[in-house]
Amino acid sequence: MGSPPTTTCYFFGPEPRHSGSAAFIKSDPESAGSTTTSGKTCYRPVLNFSSCRRETGDKLIPVTRPDKGGTNAVRSVPIRVNHFFVKFKSDNIIMHYDVDIKSEAPPKKGSSGKIPKSTLFMIREKLSSDNPSQFPASSIAYDGEKNIFSAVELPTGKFKVKFSEVEDTKVYSFIVTINLVKQLELQKLSDYFSGKLPYVPREILQAMDVVMKENPARCMISVGRSFYPHQFSREDELGYGIIASRGIQQSLKPTAQGPSFCLDFSVVPFLKPVLVLEFLKEHVNRFNLDDFKNFRREVEAALQGLKVRVAHRRTGQKFTVVGLTSQETRDLSFLAEDLEGKDSPKKVMLVDYFKEKYDRDIIYKHIPCLDVGKNNRKNYVPMEFCTLVEGQRYPKENMDRYSTQRLKQESLPPPAVRENKICAMVRASNGPCGGGIIDSFGIDVNKNMTVVSARVIEPPELKLGGSSRINVERDRCHWNLVGKWVVEGIPVDRWAVIDFSAKDRYNRLDPNWFIPKFIQRCEKLGIRMKEPLFYETANMLAFSNFSVLRGLLDQVSKKARGQIQILVCVMAGRHPGYCYLKWYSETVIGMVTQCCLSGPANKASDQYLANLALKLNAKLGGSNVELIERLPRFEGEGHVMFIGADVNHPGSRNPTSPSIAAVVATMNWPSANRYAARICPQAHRVEKIQNIGGMCLELVEHYARANKVKPEKIVVFRDGVSEGQFDMVLNEELLDIKRAIQTENYRPTITLIVARKRHLTRMFPHERNFNGNVPPGTVVDTTVVHLSEFDFYLCSHYGTLGTSKPTHYHVLYDEHGFSSDQIQKLTYNLCFTFARCTKPVSLVPPVYYADLAAYRGRMYYDAMVAEAESSASAASSSLSSSSSSYGAWLDERSYRWHGALEKENMMFFV
Questions:
Q1: What value, to the nearest 5°, has the Cα angle with vertex 782 and ends 56 and 227?
Q2: Which pLDDT does position 466 carry in this prediction?
Q3: How many CB atoms lie within 10 A of CB 792?
């Protein structure tokens, strides 16, 4: 093998690694598992299988790949992946400094003294502009918190930075303390990729990641880990003062080809950075300044918590809106203190103050001012002098249907369009490769996407009712149910209908059309269905009055003598009260419900009714479709259980709500398509499932009661964790599961796999088909995957909208000895067993169902809070905000399903 350039990190020759792990060999480009990418040969580790690896102190670390990658395929397809190969000079050094920035003046009473991130960036920029030779801006990258990375040596010590950050004439001083932390030698990164270093030098990757984000951070709006442009055009407008901002998300990661820079296209809704009064005209329906009193409540709700920039000061200081003043602007006054202390404070009218101080005439004196004070200090600013700060995200859940549809269109461009946008962003002057910053650090990015040879796995054969054997379509992998039965249809003898649309003028259900059509479609699918026990009419207003809805559900249960199998609830439209219906039915009464909208129910299309029937049958314990062949590695005797686990977190604007953990598990074998679930509330935004052992134990015990035997093999799929949380999953959650379920006489073998959808990797086929996406069953386990760990990308679904996103599966622990082909085939086959549709889904069902169950728990929480607030409102007391109330939300019993549902392990959450 020829030697690579001495200053650039590629792969270096065969190099032994520590015993029991891997040796790097040059793979034959013609053999399976080898790849050639952009003229570079990638080296794949040949690994000895072990169920787990342990660091010093018996700490588990992820397993290594057991082979050179999979080989099974019906065909190979060349694809482009949005990973851009990164070259670096291995003899370079990046200087890592700790930076501490504090105000020279002590913080005011009641203030934390914390400096906003935007101010920290300005201070760093001022430091460079004041001392360009000592702190060259083109050679420095700052993470906005405590770390500075530099391509040159910087002076250390304390430095004073002065600038007018708050008031026009007032100069503020900050003390910047810089200390050298470490010299990061890039040779270590070369050693890792060549096999000489057994661990990832994460400090170096973190430094390079910050360097590559520096130019976007300077040129664009930074929101979390994403960057968005300052400009917007008419095409971006979504209505109601909201725009769709098109930006980038990026990350740097170690892969089999070396360091890869991954960049993806991102669209989020922002508030337009316009004058507050202009925003109100667009955002508040029929807003009229001359009739402000009638719009006060809507205006306050729209503006509260938003950041505004003031125009009467040259610095354009930012403030957060607390609310509106109770008085109109013309009546506002305050006590002005004599700065020399000679005279007592005197009353000053706000209108006069703005004229004298800023030479500004206030035009709209008949409306309130914005209250932008903090720490209980009043600070009033006329609305006409305030502009919304750019880069403020607008909650998607608050958008109307039209805006949501427009945003969806912008967010889901066709694959060819997305690919072009990504490549343009990589080359853009305001992007990660612009500004000359990465050049100063000796970093160079290949502007072309990585070319990978992907494999397409063969879809499984499926079984329907009457021993019907079906082959799915090769292109879409769909199957249809025309003239076919489900595998096991549960007879529906006792069911009823509540028609909440009966009083609706426009969307009223025609029960004489819908009910016979639904029964007929169920019968054709092999689900025997009698006439409903009764048909009740109701009003959608019941969803706004919990006592009425509760009484209605109690009445139905009593009328059916508690023997009803399922209650079909027809709604005229979507309503938040749906959450209460589900919570009360499933936790208090013990009644399974199936909701549907009257619009599509009246159309009664064959496909719609079939989908409704599939959900109904799954909820009652039926089986819609099954795999004909046993899953790979589990062809022999012994029961197998698949477990899925996920955590649902509250929105970013919610600082107190609990997170909801959910664990689901299969209850049948070998079909492995019926699941039971357990949910449990836990502390706010905690990702670790705090009771995962207890929930898994319950599910194993339920499996044993249903099958008269415990599962001998368990495969756990964990959703929603980042690579930084793998250690927590391995060394806390997995150990919790083992402690809970293992006994002296019962020690099932376990495999643990993380399934991730929140990543940036996208795939684009060389040959465009009619939807432009990679076909279902596309697997990538070379080049852009981990250098030595057991991971792969699988696109299991047919993408109809936008660009398909593959799921990234990472095997962390394996006591079953899966090969790459076996675990990939097992995962893909399971995706065909999802109960609600006739096509493979994008996420393996155990995780998909865990996500649905966790979301069901979130609905229960919302229902309980809404009921508490309704009761508190009636009692004129704020129950929901009390600490005792928050403790009630963490009570697991409030989320426990009714005994009848829990005993039968019904899949009512689908």
A1: 85
A2: 81
A3: 24
